[in-house]
Design brief:
It is a single chain. It contains 1 helix and 20 strands. With 377 residues, it is mostly beta strands. The strands form 2 sheets. It has an 18-stranded antiparallel β-barrel. A two-stranded antiparallel sheet has the order 8-9. A hairpin with a 6-residue loop joins strand 19 and strand 20.
């Protein structure tokens, strides 16, 4: 077995030496001051070092190996007696990728390893996973299928939600294994099917290999395209099936208008999640109040963005949230998020975000100011 590993390693190094290696390092620093309810301001501080390596193997068809590691330090302090320091190690990307082109517009691609996967909504399943993915692309249809397992992921960087809408996570050690799920996603897309409108259908399966009661299934239909010149829309609805629960639904609509003036745009969004709906990946419904997922929720939002000068991006998002249980709908809160992002040089980016959430319950109010910079070497 050792000889086989040595042979494979030598073959990899010999093949890689024939092509150029692309090595880089990202250094990211995040400083986040936040205040919840009547509490005093607290601090979340993190530094992340992300080395990466890409090895191309073929000049005719794109075939390459790519990997990224991350070393993260986290500090949390309430500026009193409670301060915690922690290091987290991860391998968010490790994959082989190959593409074969039959014609200029028709190709088949395959990827194997650990890489990010998202469903069409970006809400149900959106995380790194250990996968095998195959995709066929043509001008008339796109077929995609992926199967994977979550049991080797670091649960400190990937938060998954079970059928009871509880989050599985752990803060112990440098690397803590995540809950073991077999996952599969299959989709078919018909681009520009009629009147430049695209339609797609998608199925997601998540089976807990230790507890079959945790198994869930999501089915999504999506339609998108232009309405008039610079006005575009995207409408999707997802149905979730889980044994012992009612059929659940998540529906979202996005309307986007792009102006010719300074690369500016306006986006209106509306989303509804029924009381029994659960996501697989924890993605919060509120950018300011970080505790709420998409369940028994109605959310209406408006985002405006502009690039007033080269390399400077400005955006403002406002949302109104309502709790939507089976019996009635009640006001939950209002949030606003402002973003400033400046690309100082090609290898240095600065960003500043400020947000506030004003809830119907004052204890959920939150103010957040975060500064970050990223340097590429």
């Amino acid at each position: 077995m050792k000889k086989i590993i040595q042979i494979l390693l030598c073959a990899f190094l010999v093949s890689a030496s024939a092509f150029s290696l692309d090595f880089g390092v990202l250094v990211t620093d995040n400083t986040d001051f936040y205040k919840v309810g009547e509490n005093d301001f607290a601090l979340d501080q993190s530094e992340i070092i992300t080395p990466s390596l890409k090895v191309p193997f073929n000049t005719k068809d794109p075939i390459y190996f790519i990997t990224e590691a991350s070393i993260k330090h986290k500090l949390n302090s309430d500026f009193k007696d409670n301060t915690t320091n922690k290091f987290v190690l991860d391998l968010p990307l490790l994959k082989f990728s190959a593409t074969h082109r039959f014609t200029h517009r028709t190709s088949i691609s395959a990827e194997i390893g650990r890489f990010a996967v998202s469903d069409s909504t970006g809400i149900v399943f959106n995380q790194a996973n250990d996968n095998i993915l195959v995709q066929f692309n043509s001008p008339y249809f796109v077929l995609s299928a992926t199967g994977g397992w979550t049991g080797l992921l670091n649960s400190q960087n990937v938060e998954m939600i079970n059928s009871s809408n509880a989050v599985y996570t752990s803060d112990e050690g440098l690397y803590t294994l995540a809950a073991p799920y077999f996952t599969a996603i299959g989709s078919v897309t018909l681009p520009y099917f009629i009147f430049k409108q695209s339609i797609s259908a998608e199925a997601i399966v998540a089976i807990n290999t230790q507890n079959n009661d945790e198994s869930r299934y999501w089915f999504t239909g999506n339609v998108s395209g232009p309405l008039h010149n610079s006005l575009f829309y995207n409408l999707s609805t997802t149905f979730e099936i889980c044994e012992g629960r009612d059929l659940a639904n998540f529906t979202q609509l996005n309307l986007s208008y792009f102006f010719d003036f300074l690369s500016s745009s306006v986006n209106f969004s509306a989303s509804y999640a029924s009381p029994d709906f659960t996501q697989f990946t924890k993605i919060t419904a509120s950018s300011a109040a970080v505790t709420d997922t998409y369940s028994e929720l109605l959310k209406l939002g408006l985002t405006a963005s502009i690039i007033p000068v080269s390399k400077l991006y400005l955006a403002l998002t406002t949302d109104v949230l309502f709790k939507a249980p089976k019996d009635n709908i009640s006001y939950y809160g209002f949030e606003a998020l402002g973003t400033i992002q400046y690309q100082v040089f090609s290898d240095l980016q600065l960003s500043l975000k400020a947000s506030t959430f004003l809830g119907s319950d004052a204890s959920t109010n939150k103010t957040d100011i975060a500064f970050a910079f990223t340097i590429a070497f």
